[in-house]
Amino acid sequence: MGRIICCGLGPGDPDMMSVRADRTVRAAKHVAYFRKKGRPGQARRIVEGMLASDVTEYAMEYPVTTELAFDSPEYVQLLAGFYDEWAERLARLSRAVDVVVLCEGDPYFYGSFMHLHTRLQGRVEIEVIAGIPGMVGCWNGVGRPIALGDDVTTVLMGTLPEDELERRMRDSDALVIMKTGRNLAKVRGALAAAGRLDDAWLVERGTMPGERVVRLAEIDAADCPYFAIVLVHGKGRHLDAAE
């Protein structure tokens, strides 16, 4: 009886993978990973040159990504069927062999594998290897502490309604905004309304080749990079202040 091992790969730079993740990837004989149709896949790119020569790869191609609204009935139905199918396929494979599923960042932090995790509970043995979340690599790219002292840090999805984003931006000290992409104009508008735009940074492709770190207010409004996170640093008690 095999296992399904979900391996967190960290923020993108292979050097930031854990020793355990590196060892698991190099020893794997069966490797699965998510990707957009026609693309190599971000997780697969991270492990380029690390896989064994006799490895068997399973590319789990999303039936849809940004072509449909994420909350549309058709999108929900297509993705549910996709996850159902791959949960069944992985369950069958793991009856005989270990299958390593690659996951960017940390699997338990907004990882796509969690859609399979819920479907596989009680059916197969699952092991999850922790990874550094992508946002950690991004705020290290800025080179400033994301939060200090009593700062409250909030993680937001750019897919939220603009008024909801604005309210939560006002109520928090440090901000991490994920799923920007086509939502970046909305995120900018919410930050401006909350009085936080001048403090916001955009980090594109954090820790990866082509990394870009810029003030959000300084980039073209039409610029909507896909692999990007917006950060607003907290301003709490500083490191030299008494705790």
TrEMBL record:
GO biological process, one term: methylation
Keywords of the record: Cobalamin biosynthesis, Methyltransferase, S-adenosyl-L-methionine, Transferase
SUPFAM superfamilies for the chain: Tetrapyrrole methylase
Entries under InterPro entries matching the protein: 4pyrrol_Mease (IPR000878), 4pyrrol_Methylase_sf (IPR035996), 4pyrrole_Mease_sub1 (IPR014777), 4pyrrole_Mease_sub2 (IPR014776), CobI/CbiL (IPR012382), CobI/CbiL/CobIJ_dom (IPR006364)
CDD domains on file: Precorrin_2_C20_MT
One GO MF term: cobalt-factor II C20-methyltransferase activity
Pathway annotation: Cofactor biosynthesis; adenosylcobalamin biosynthesis
Keyword Transferase recorded: yes
Domain Tetrapyrrole methylase positions: 4-216
Enzyme Commission (EC) number: 2.1.1.130, 2.1.1.151
Family stated for the protein in its record: Belongs to the precorrin methyltransferase family.
Name this protein carries in UniProt: Precorrin-2/cobalt-factor-2 C20-methyltransferase
